[in-house]
Amino acid sequence: MEVISVTADADVFTCNAYLVCGDRTVLVDAGTMPGVESVVATHTDDLDAVVLTHQHGDHIGELDAVVERFDPDVYAAAAHPLRTHELADGDEIVLGDETFEVVHTPGHADDHVSLVSDRSLFSGDVVVYNDGAFDDGSFGKTDLPGQSRERVIASLRDLLDRLPETVERMYAGHGDVFESGTGGDTVRDVIERALERAERRQPKYPEA
């Protein structure tokens, strides 16, 4: 399975949008980078689906442009005018050449989902490898209205419970892609470290 970050050259704030190539070509999140649909088009003529980890603005800003260009199916947990398929906890969905389980992971956003296969994790914003707060395991922001640190903690625990030991790569909504072996860590180590940091209940970005 080939995964390409189609927002890698963005000069605006955006999430990481990942093009997953294989038997079923899928875009995970759309980002906010103008022209992202043209970047996708340099890699494929056909986009089967877009899967949204959640609907914060930095993840769906260019969804209209992508849908207009490719007319893909759109999968999301929460209602959206362009949604064609609803995602629910425990669903299975094929990205590229791998089958992923949908894991509802709220806290950063009520509709947040992560996608877990035997080899890969698309974690959205619930857990990232590095984000400016922590360099080797961080959790999603929970300081805005409607967000919840307690729910993020529960989501990280659930994700660990449902994460196969064979998962080798984590594609997060922000920061770098993580591959097991980096710094001697596994994907599970990164999530466990993010959970421990979230459980401290301290502000993620302390005041200077």
From TrEMBL:
<dbReference type="GO" id="GO:0016787">
    <property type="term" value="F:hydrolase activity"/>
</dbReference>
<dbReference type="InterPro" id="IPR001279">
    <property type="entry name" value="Metallo-B-lactamas"/>
</dbReference>
<feature type="domain" description="Metallo-beta-lactamase">
    <location>
        <begin position="14"/>
        <end position="174"/>
    </location>
</feature>
<keyword id="KW-0378">Hydrolase</keyword>
<dbReference type="GO" id="GO:0046872">
    <property type="term" value="F:metal ion binding"/>
</dbReference>
<protein>
    <submittedName>
        <fullName>Hydroxyacylglutathione hydrolase</fullName>
    </submittedName>
</protein>
<dbReference type="InterPro" id="IPR051453">
    <property type="entry name" value="MBL_Glyoxalase_II"/>
</dbReference>
<keyword id="KW-0862">Zinc</keyword>
<keyword id="KW-0479">Metal-binding</keyword>
<dbReference type="InterPro" id="IPR036866">
    <property type="entry name" value="RibonucZ/Hydroxyglut_hydro"/>
</dbReference>
<dbReference type="Pfam" id="PF00753">
    <property type="entry name" value="Lactamase_B"/>
</dbReference>
